[in-house]
Amino acid sequence: MFKNLLLLAITTLLFVGCSSEKEIEISSQSFTEKELEICQDEACPEVTINYVKINGDSEVSKTINHKIKNFIITSLLMGEETKPTAQDIRSAVKGFVEVYFSDKNQFPNMAGEYFAEITINEIYVSENIISFEMSQYLYTGGAHGYGRTTFLNVNPKTGDTYTFSELFQNKEEFISVAEKKFREQQNISENQGINDTKFWFKDDAFHLPESVGFTQDSLIFIYNQYEIASYADGPIELKIARKEATPYLTIQ
User: Fold this and answer.
1) Residue 80's pLDDT band (boundaries 50, 70, 90)?
2) Cα Rg, the chain, nearest whole Å
3) Closest CA to 112 of 48, 38, 46, 49
């Protein structure tokens, strides 16, 4: 999931709104530490950002691009900052690099180099929804780095983000369906507690992750490391076929 992507100089034309045939152009973008002047003469930490951009100057494009940019900037937040101050991706990468140099000067013998990889792709597009998978992985010292994957679902007509409640109806019934799938996937019988194996769901009660991704055939839920299991267990993915989820979806 976190492998470097070969950047394609391709613009994807995606059509939404069958009646109006309005076009949304999504193009591939990239940014690395090598584009910073400070890294021309200094050995900088590796930063690889592959993302997508909605082309055009419409308010919808600006709204969606702002959400994508904000994810990237927030992912690179380090040090004592609790809120990002960078206004663009270049500034965020520069800030990440500067924190590395500061830490390196303070701890010249620290083991390992800092590293950041961020990837954002559109994984499903229809006239009612665009679903983005957003992944980040950072190493800033210690035994291992930390990665996280979330999903962003937006209305292509307005750019607004869909909440879980806006995407699903009969939520409790759907969660029961999801739990059954999860138990089948993880070989947990109906008679066992959800935490009887390796998991640590709060109050021994199944719940879904905060975000869901849409593909042509499936709904994807990802529990990131430490959410319901140990780091060593890695991200845990739950897939539910679209045909099984359709009765519970408000948007197709």
Assistant:
1) low
2) 20
3) 46
Q: Which of 141, 125, 145 is nearest to 133 (CA)?
A: 125
Contact 220, 245 (CB under 8 A): no
Q: So what's the pLDDT on residue 221?
A: 98
Distance CA 154, CA 152 (A): 6
pLDDT-derived band at 81, boundaries 50, 70, 90: low
Question: How far apart (Å, rounded) are the C-alpha atoms in residues 124 and 55?
Answer: 17
CB contact at 8 A, 60 and 54: yes
Phi, psi of 167 (to 5 degrees): -90, -25
Distance of CA 93 to the CA centre of its chain: 18
Whole-prediction pTM:
0.87
Query: What is residue 147's predicted lDDT score, i.e. its pLDDT?
Result: 93
CA separation for the pair 1, 251 (Å, rounded): 27
* 117: number of Cβ within 10 Å: 22
Question: What is the three-class DSSP state of 204?
Answer: helix
Alpha helices by DSSP H, listed for the chain, are 38-41, 59-75, 89-106, 164-167, 171-186, 242-245
Structural domains in the chain, sorted by start: 11-154 (3.30.565.40), 164-248 (3.90.640.20)
As a whole number, mean pLDDT of residues 236-240 equals 97
Q: Which residues on neighbouring strands pair with residue 148, listed in sequence order?
A: 136
Q: Render the burial of 65-88: b for 16+ CB within 10 Å, e for the rest.
A: bebbbebbbebbbbeeeeebebee
Which 8-state DSSP code applies to residue 55?
A: -
Residue % of the chain over a pLDDT of 90:
74
